[in-house]
Design brief:
- The complex is a heterodimer of chains A (about 375) and B (about 300).
- With about 375 residues, chain A is α+β, with helices and mostly antiparallel strands.
- Chain A folds into 2 domains: about 190 residues, P-loop containing nucleotide triphosphate hydrolases (Rossmann fold, 3-Layer(aba) Sandwich); about 100 residues, Nucleic acid-binding proteins (OB fold (Dihydrolipoamide Acetyltransferase, E2P), Beta Barrel).
- Chain A contains 10 helices and 21 strands.
- In chain A, the strands form 5 sheets. A 6-stranded mixed sheet of chain A has the order 6-7-8-3-9-10, with helices on both faces. A 5-stranded antiparallel sheet of chain A has the order 16-20-17-18-19, with no helix packed on it.
- The two termini of chain A are about 30 Å apart.
- Chain B has about 300 residues and is mainly α.
- Chain B has 2 domains: about 35 residues; about 230 residues, MetI-like fold.
- Helix content of chain B is about 70%, strand content about 5%.
- Chain B is built from 12 helices and 4 strands.
- In chain B, the strands form 2 sheets. Chain B has a two-stranded antiparallel ribbon with strand order 1-2. In chain B, strands 3-4 form a two-stranded antiparallel ribbon.
- In chain B, helix 1 crosses helix 12, helix 8 crosses helix 9 and helix 9 packs antiparallel against helix 12.
- Chain B is flat.
- The chains are: A alpha+beta (about 375), B mainly alpha (about 300).
- At the A-B interface, strand 6 and helix 4 of A face helix 8 and helix 9 of B.
């Protein structure tokens, strides 16, 4: 589902491939980010970053994903210059900015709390960065007007910030950073304070803005759905270390370890207790896998499972009993008992029979859909 | 019009109930204010317009004599003495309040950055000196600043004062005493402002290319403005009317308006003149408060700053 939204939005708003390539060539050097061995420690015992190496490409929507305390916000703050790394180097556009203070970096941030200046009007807020940079008044005026138009808040510019709704503040915070036309835009969970409906609307808006401007966005979130919808690539962090970097599909379908799998929402993880060629022994029974890798854990994604009524036999056919069914309209989520183990399955609602709680069913999975990963 | 006889009755009954309610809740406070503020002020006002009697006590008839004398017109023609006292009071208030702000700002900021468990102790350290009587503390400064003390000798050797003059008595000693005395009254409201400072705004300013100094001016200062204004009111008004510190540290040339007023009441000198002086102080204070409100409104971006 996430892929279809991304594709639709991309189709509508992306520059032509040629234009994109030209843009990339001209700005790649100017806005690519390289982090080399970044360490950060708070106090004596709290390790926020334990050696982060990461390269972010120009024009990319890059997401730092992880639970609270994983170091993602610290990493973003180091990018902004609001925090200093204990060790390591940071390059933005090929220039070493490790020791450059925040006000001398061509990087702007959208803060989680928005951090708008309450004693200034919307216009003055939008104008702030340009004024501090010493842009000429006439150009400032034009750029503020253009950005207010761009985010469709042109009629609010004379308002005070405390007269705005949460969604409007969010847009102003985004515009205040965008108007400076930074090499990199940093976003620290900018949507977390909004309710679900507004949130998904602004996700799409944010994505369109990024594609239209072709600007490098570094986005921090703890919400894996949000990360998958928005990102070109995702870095999953835990314990101050990067666990996996890749496009959303890769991270979701081929997580490298149990942490990433669980964080991406997977529950069907089973230890592989025996292996003979393609045949794996698991608590569920014997399963045949194709190119599943040599990891010690088997991952079965719920949406790869099919439920057949009654008993059946064949490759990767497992007898199961329905323990719980959550009907969600477009699909149903099942909890199944397979021997002593529990298995989650998601079944699309195509109008066919949906087994009831207590029914005996046969679960099947294609061998190529099984992957293994390390602990 | 046809129902006008019905509804107003119900409404007026409700109004009576509300008025009774108001009477019970407001009456005690109002009584207190009338007895201890309104009546004495009215008396003071009346005294100011009366004639000075043989023992310095007010007598009839009413006259403007006190205000004439306050303005400097005496038996020997006009003298600038009282005018100097007024200007000195204003100047001392301005300078000492300014210095208090400069000293209190970093202290309040520093305390707000300390670990939470240390903050109450640091605040206590700021407040503890004021647990001692003001007169005693001021006597302490006399001993520190008198001629021949280390501080005075140091100032002498640096050529800041004439030999054997001492730092006390002087206008400098009065300023020092005022700054020392009123520091806690500025630190506390400023600390309260710093403690709830939204640091994200400061970071946003830095992120938007503001140098540290400009980030302070655009993101820290506006946030601490209410505390600062409250502190200025708490310091400037009592400093303007201060009696003890100029009396003890100022000598004959360090007199402030408070001393002028006090001298007219003590020593049996001239009650009506003292009352006129007190009224002048009151007017000056109101003018100052009004000006502060205007400044606060302007700097606060139209936001009402309550003081």
């Amino acid at each position: 589902m996430s892929d279809t939204i991304t594709a639709a939005v991309t189709d509508k708003t992306a520059p032509t491939p040629a234009a994109r390539a030209a843009h990339d060539a001209s700005t790649r050097e100017a806005s690519a980010i390289a982090m080399q061995g970044l360490h950060k420690r708070f106090g004596r015992d709290t390790v926020a970053l334990a050696g982060v190496d990461l390269a972010i490409r120009a024009g990319e929507f890059f997401t730092l994903l992880g639970p609270s305390g994983c170091g993602k916000t610290t990493l973003l703050r180091i990018l902004a210059g609001l925090e200093e790394a204990d060790d390591g180097r940071l390059l933005i556009g090929g220039r070493d900015v490790t020791d450059v203070p925040p006000h001398r970096r061509s990087v702007n941030t959208v803060f989680q709390s928005y951090a708008l200046f309450p004693h200034l009007s919307v216009r003055e807020n939008l104008d702030f960065g340009l004024k501090m940079r010493g842009v000429a008044p006439a150009e400032r005026k034009a750029r503020v007007a253009r950005i207010a138009e761009f985010i469709q808040l042109g009629d609010l510019v004379e308002r005070r910030v405390d007269q705005l709704s949460g969604g409007q503040r969010q847009r102003i915070a985004l515009a205040r950073a965008l108007v400076c036309e930074p090499d990199v835009l940093l976003l620290d969970e900018p949507l977390s304070a909004l309710d679900a409906g507004l949130r998904s609307q602004l996700q799409v808006e944010l994505l369109r803005v990024q594609k239209r401007l072709g600007m490098t966005f570094v986005f921090v979130t703890h919400d894996q759905d949000e990360a998958m919808v928005m990102s070109d690539r995702i870095a999953v962090l835990n314990g101050g270390l990067i666990q996996q970097v890749g496009p959303p599909r890769e991270v979701y379908e081929h997580p490298v370890n149990a942490f990433v799998a669980r964080f991406m929402g997977h529950d069907n993880l089973y230890p592989v207790t025996g292996r003979c060629g393609d045949r794996l022994t698991t608590p569920l029974g014997e399963l045949t896998a194709e190119a599943a890798g040599s990891g010690a854990l088997l991952l079965i994604r719920p949406e790869t499972l099919d439920l057949l009524p009654g008993d059946g036999a064949g490759t990767n056919h497992l007898p199961a009993r329905v323990v719980e069914r959550l009907y969600r309209g477009s699909h149903a989520e099942y909890r199944l008992a397979v021997g002593e183990s529990t298995l989650q399955a998601t079944v699309n609602n195509r109008g066919r029979h949906l087994p009831e709680v207590g029914d005996r069913v046969t679960v099947t999975v294609a061998p190529e859909d099984l992957v293994t990963l390390s602990e | 019009m046809s129902y006008s006889g019905v509804i107003p009755t119900a409404r007026s009954r409700a109004m009576v109930r509300e008025a009774r309610h108001l009477l019970f809740t407001v009456a005690p406070g109002a009584t207190w204010i009338v007895i201890f503020l309104v009546l004495p002020s009215a008396y003071l006002m009346a005294v100011a317009f009366m004639t000075n009697g043989p023992y310095g006590l007010p007598e009839m008839p009413l006259s403007l004599e006190s205000f004439r004398r306050l303005a400097g017109f005496g038996f020997l023609g006009w003298s600038p003495g009282n005018l100097y006292t007024l200007l000195r009071s204003l100047w001392q208030t301005l300078v000492s309040t300014g210095l208090v702000v400069l000293v209190a700002y970093p202290i309040a900021y520093y305390i707000s950055t300390c670990r939470a468990k240390w903050r109450p102790i640091m605040l206590l350290l700021v407040v503890v000196p004021s647990w001692t009587n003001q007169v005693i503390r001021t006597f302490g400064w006399m001993n520190l600043l008198a001629p021949g003390t280390p501080l005075s000798s140091l100032a002498e050797s640096l050529g800041l004062i004439a030999p054997n003059m001492g730092l006390y008595p002087s206008n400098f000693a009065v300023t020092l005493g005022l700054v020392y005395n009123f520091l806690p009254f500025m630190v506390l409201p400023l600390y309260a402002a710093f403690e709830k400072l939204d640091t994200a705004q400061v970071e946003a300013a830095q992120d938007l290319y503001a140098s540290p100094l400009r980030a302070f001016w655009h993101a820290v200062f506006p946030q601490t403005l209410p505390g600062l204004l409250a502190g200025i009111v708490l310091v400037a008004i009592p400093a303007f009317g201060m009696y003890v510190i100029p009396e003890l540290l100022g000598g004959g040339k360090g007199m402030m308006l408070g001393n002028l007023v006090a001298n007219q009441f003590s020593g049996g000198a001239n009650w009506p003149l003292g009352a006129a002086g007190a009224i002048l102080m009151l007017i000056a204070t109101f003018v100052g408060l009004f000006a502060m409100r205007r400044i606060g409104k302007r700097l606060g971006g139209g936001e009402e700053v309550v003081i």
